[in-house]
Amino acid sequence: MPRGESWQYEPKWDGFRCLAYRDGDEVFLASRNGRPLARYFPDLVEKLRAAAPPRFVVDGEIVIPVDGRLSFDELSLRLHPAASRVAKLAAAHPAEFVLFDLLATPEGRQIAGHPFIERRAVLEKLFNEGAFGAGIRLSPMTRDFAQAKCWLDVAGGDVDGVVAKRLDAPYDSGGRDAMIKVKRMRTADCVVGGFRTGKNDDLVASLLLGLYDQDGKLVHVGFTSGLKREERPALTARLQKLIKPPGFDRNPPGGPSRWNRGEEKPWFPLKPALVVEVRFDHVSSDRFRHGTTLLRFRPDKKPRECGMEQLER
């Protein structure tokens, strides 16, 4: 994480990055890749339309609190084609917006090219004057490296890491010159409960990972890939000798589906005999949010020693 007087630090929230544009009654929400989001978050559109300023452009994070914690699963459920389903989800768990940048002022001034320290000051002034109502909040910030380090040390729940921003930089939606995202990386020892082969051959491409829960059941929690090409033939032969159903007792991975257009190959279940250590960055609903990095095999560790408590936030 960068250090110095030219940096400001903010929590990296566990949500959807979003640019919000308002011009009178017109409100447009877009992902950082330009994908329209308003149809999935009509509740947030109304909150932004109810704000005091008649026009503005802000950058922030869409989040959904559930039982006092942010739920990425609820966010993902919103990406549904049926408006009736989206409305039902919005009524049950309303979305909120965490502000962290201002690109255009209520007066219509375009300030994206101004230094971040100036944009943040204008945003804070608007927020503190009550420009935004309930469900729209301002992301906390610090210029104290020690405080930012504390945020990073406890990352893994609502906070996905820390974002360091240059105070003198103009707006940049994702460039490393203006901001650096830092995640807290952790490790876990997992049981290899299955594997998948590559799309173009029959050699192992990814290992399917499991952890034992309190009932002694092996739960599928994610995968690790990026296996070295030269090691794949020997590893495939080793795994083929361990093929034995069911592989996992709970949440087994699926086969080809309409979402992956049948491109993903079926998986092969294994006898729970191998343990690997993997590195991961985030956990959601008791599973790894992203693919993990394989660090090493652990022949010194028994599969039954690999428990779900390793994923506790």
Task: Explain what this protein looks like in three dimensions.
The protein has 313 residues and is an alpha+beta fold. The protein folds into two domains: 12-142, D-amino Acid Aminotransferase, Chain A, domain 1 (2-Layer Sandwich), CATH 3.30.470; 186-311, OB fold (Dihydrolipoamide Acetyltransferase, E2P) (Beta Barrel), CATH 2.40.50. It is built from six helices and 16 strands. A five-stranded mixed sheet has the order 3-2-4-7-8. Strands 11-12-13-16-15 form a five-stranded mixed beta barrel. A hairpin with a 2-residue loop joins strand 2 and strand 3 (26-30). It is elongated and about 70 Å long. The model is unreliable at 256-261 (pLDDT under 50).
Radius of gyration: 23 Å
Strand order of the largest sheet: 3-2-4-7-8
Question: How would you sum up the major sheet?
Answer: 5 strands, mixed
Q: What share of residues is helical? A: 10-25%
Distance between the termini: 22 Å
Number of strands: 16
CATH class of the largest domain: Alpha Beta
Quick description:
By secondary structure, the protein is an alpha+beta fold.
Topology:
Blueprint: E1 7-13, E2 16-23, E3 26-30, H1 42-49, E4 55-63, E5 65-66, E6 69-70, H2 72-77, H3 83-92, E7 96-104, H4 116-128, E8 136-138, H5 145-153, E9 159-166, E10 179-182, E11 186-197, E12 204-212, E13 218-225, H6 232-240, E14 268-269, E15 275-280, E16 292-297
Parallel strand pairs: 7-8, 13-16
Antiparallel strand pairs: 1-9, 2-3, 2-4, 4-7, 5-6, 9-10, 11-12, 11-14, 11-15, 12-13, 15-16
